[in-house]
Design goal:
85 residues; two-stranded antiparallel sheet
Length: 85
């Protein structure tokens, strides 16, 4: 993600423990959110994560949905065809 942001925004991006720091005073939080959302869509992660603006930064959060139950497959019913030979 850091290389994507540095290439699209033309700013210096450094990575910390669990975060990325962007060195730009002219970049708004809304523009940063838009680029992070674009990254998630391009990597097909939009079904799992969403982006929120908090204070002067952007956070990537995971959707909290209910866990889907596995559907039980029913076996094929026995054949009821009778042959009259």
């Amino acid at each position: 993600m850091s290389s994507f942001l540095s290439a699209t925004l033309n700013v210096k991006v450094t990575s910390g423990n669990d975060n990325l720091l962007i060195d730009s005073e002219r970049l708004s939080a809304e523009e940063l959110r838009r680029q992070v959302t674009k990254f998630l869509y391009r990597h097909h992660l939009n079904y799992k994560y969403w982006v929120a603006i908090e204070h002067d930064g952007v956070k990537i959060r995971m959707f909290e949905g209910k866990k889907s139950q596995k559907k039980k497959k029913r076996g094929t019913p026995p054949s009821t065809i009778k042959h009259g030979w």
